[in-house]
Design brief:
Blueprint: H1 10-15, E1 17-19, E2 25-27, H2 32-41, H3 44-76, H4 90-97, H5 105-112, H6 129-140, H7 149-181, H8 189-217, H9 230-238, H10 246-252, H11 260-289, H12 295-316, H13 318-328, H14 333-338, H15 341-357, H16 361-392
Antiparallel strand pairs: 1-2
Helix pairs in contact: 3-6, 3-7, 3-16, 4-5, 7-8, 8-9, 8-11, 11-12, 11-13, 12-16, 13-15
Length: 393
Amino acid sequence: MVGSRPSLPSWLTAATTRVDFEGNVSSMSSSSSSSSVSDMNLGFGERAFSAAGAAAFSAVLVNPLDIAKTRLQAQAAGVPYHYQGPCHMACFYTNTMLPDLRSTTSSARAVLGSEPPVCPSDCSRYTGTLDVLYKVIRQEGFTRLWRGTNASLVLAVPTVGIYLPCYDIFRNSMEEFTTQNAPNLTPYVPLVAGSVSRSLACVSCYPVELARTRMQAFKETQIGVKPPGVWKTLLEVINPLKSTNLLQNLQNYRVLWTGLGAQLARDVPFSAICWSTLEPIRRRILGLVGDEASAPCILGTNFSAGFVAGILAAAATCPLDVARTRRQIEKDPVRALKMRTRETLVEIWRDGGMRGLFTGIGPRIARAGPSVGIVVSFYEVVKYALHQRYLTQ
């Protein structure tokens, strides 16, 4: 696909500019500067298009794990998951109910076939990631694993479309400045660029994030009723606060940013940890490969670096994710506006200790690793394709 170093994606040659944590900068190839320039010549629109495609692909792929994480965290916060109607899981409990004779009379009759089976209490409680996925499929249907995907797509496309291009632009500008004026600060550029760009994306698109969390956390108890979409979910958040006073209504719309502080408290450290981990790993691998790198190798390098960085960042920020979920699913709008991240963390610690703070960590890291790897690698490949198109023109 590619035969020479100058034709490789811009991030390959840019990545071969080594920056160690003593602030020493050394270039491994004379072609680095020209490729960096071509990367910087890509406009915000091209970068946003690349990021949007990566975000859409990742959002659809990992949504079931997002469902599992949110359900586990919501359950820990006290959200009940009662299943109404005939139990489709009775066969799973048949072998455990009759031998020890601890089942209720109605459950026993259900097993013997005298009346429709009724869910035992265990049907309404999730015990882990696989248990969530299994019960959602059996009780709600396979397609419900993608509940909130429309919100995820509505959220991911603009969020990542802002996030990654801004990160690229901030990183390129800051690295150019620090390399010339303060080399000792250059290793920390990914951390700062990631934090600032993520903050911009979060504030811009937060109401849709709020809708997605509520759509994933709550399930419809009425069979055959279509669950509310993004717009209806947001209206349900606003309606309890509506009044005849226009100014008061405008002030009440801030409820759509309920939990923004917790979101920023989670996403800013996540981005800081992720990019400050991803960039050194990517540079080290690409530095080892050198001139022999092929396009698949580069793709694998980006996915691997993103996978590792995503897992580490997700694990480190899990308590903040639990606090964010608890604030977003609060149904009392007055209490929701008064909740603070620090108080929420103390409440979670009081209720569940360390285990409570890391509720849902399994599906969170299982989602974050592939998601970051897919987004970063897909984003860079599309950028490379756009760059190659410009070269041919």
